[in-house]
Structures are given as structure tokens and as C-alpha cells.
Amino acid sequence: MVEQIIKLIAESQIAILCSVDENGYPCAKAMLAPRRVNGMREVWFSTNTSSQSVERYRNCNKASIYFYNATTFQGVMLRGTIEILEDAQTKEELWQDGDELYYPNGITDPDYCVLHFTADNARYYADFCSTEIKL
Amino acid sequence: MVEQIIKLIAESQIAILCSVDENGYPCAKAMLAPRRVNGMREVWFSTNTSSQSVERYRNCNKASIYFYNATTFQGVMLRGTIEILEDAQTKEELWQDGDELYYPNGITDPDYCVLHFTADNARYYADFCSTEIKL
User: Fold this and answer.
1) Cβ contacts (< 8 Å) between B74 and chain A: which residues?
2) Tens digit of each residue's pLDDT (9 = 90 or more) over A62-113
């Protein structure tokens, strides 16, 4: 099952990143595929420091990431916490060609940061069944 | 813009339904297209009464529904509350051929219920810009 989940994550072009807003409402946002993944345990995205998501994670670091395949009816939700990384080394490691479109001032652009997600548990849905997985 | 959003919702085959769990973590779940939509204001889904989502909405009715198009980079998040409907009339109105697959006992199956979502506000993303909309 872990292999199936890792394959699902690797093949997803879009991830749904969820947060909780200041009034306690759940929020969702489509993100391009993560910049880096460590099994089911850690996920890294690049994003704008000025975005609402970053503001929300500074207030409440609880998060989930949802990957799904609408054709095979498989989905996995990773649940855990987000850390906002703004150190030079991480920003350089995660930078990709073309990122200037989002961060015109390049790698040191203060509006460029990295979201580092660490999962505590996962819920996998396939074949009409859900399974909880402790990580 | 409202027309664009209504078109986005109508063309989405999948909706991402979000809730907050008992520990305050955001949760996401892919749903087949809604059973009924009233503009951007109301959305109805059918679901299993025994599902985790229903249990969560009984504890906390704050919800969001996210529709997006990965090709055009458009997305809309509707934020509001969920009401769980189990009355015979609503269940009959929302029933569709083929639902026996999910609810073997038919329209009166106690494991079949309707989620009625009412939006308070929306956030629309298109052309790299986000817009807040009060409803």
C-alpha cells in the first residue's frame, strides 16, 4: 500500500494544500507538484511569502496535503504541520529554472519562501475503502 | 467574474470538500460533481451517513468547497457551513439512478444522506490574481 501511495504522489501534477483560517474555516489551494518529497513523510513546496497561505500557517501550522487520481478513484490525505523556511540554503536548493516568473528578484527575493510539510498520519482511499496510516 | 465562476463550477467533474477534524486539522476529500448547485451560494452532495466527513460536520459545520481547472489555472474556494439533511423529501429529490452502488438499501437507506452547503464568501483565482467575493 505504501508503494501505491508513493506512486500516486509521484504521478500527481497537482496537490491540494489545506490550511485553517483565522475564523476556523478549512481552506484549500491547488499547488503545482511539490518541489521535493521524502516518501509520505515530508513534502516541500515553493510559494510567495506574501500569500494568504503563509500568513495562515504562521497563525496555525496544522495542514493537510491531498493527492488524488480522478480516473482511478484513489486519494491520499497527508495530515501534519507546515514550517515556513526562508533560509538561503533551502531557497537555493529548491529553486528551479523559470521561477523568475513568480519571484522576479530571483533566489534571494524576499517574496520567495519554502513550505516544509511533515506528516503525522495519512488516510488512503482506494477500491471504495479508506485506511488510516500512522507515520 | 460571477459568470466565469459559475461556469468553472458547472464544468468541474470533481469538487474538493474540506472540513476540520476534532484536533483542528484541515481535511480534504474528492467528491463527484455536486447533485445540485444554486449559483455560488448553495451546493448539495450525497454521501454516506457513516462517513468521517459527516461525523466531522456534526462536530464542526465549517466547510469549504474547492473547484479548479488545472489547465487554465483557475480555482474557486467557497467558504461556509454544512447542514446534514436526512429527511425523506430531500433524499428523494437528490437520488439518482445508480446510487444503489453506494446505498444498497435505496432512497430510505439510513446510510444515505445529503450535505447541504451554504457559502458565506468565495475566493477566486485566475490570471495569477485572487479576488475575495462576499456572498
Assistant:
1) none
2) 999 999 999 999 999 999 999 999 999 999 999 999 999 999 999 999 999 9
In tens, the pLDDT along B45-101 reads 999 999 999 999 999 999 999 999 999 999 999 999 999 999 999 999 999 999 999
The pTM of the full predicted model, rounded to 2 decimals, is 0.94
CB atoms within 10 A of CB B60: 17
Tell me what ipTM this predicted complex has: 0.94
Ordered by start, the domain boundaries in chain A are: 2-134
Does residue B30 belong to the interface with chain A, where contact is any CB pair within 8 Å? yes
* Nearest by CB: B28 against A25, A62, A77: A77
What CATH number should be reported for the domain whose range is B2-134? 2.30.110.10
Q: Residue B30: its chain A contacts at CB < 8 A?
A: 66, 68, 70, 75
pLDDT the model gives residue A78: 98
Contacts 24+ apart (CB under 8 A), B123-131: B123/B76, B123/B77, B123/B79, B124/B1, B124/B4, B124/B5, B124/B74, B124/B75, B124/B76, B125/A29, B125/B73, B125/B74, B125/B75, B125/B76, B126/B4, B126/B72, B126/B73, B126/B74, B126/B75, B128/B73, B130/A52, B131/B1
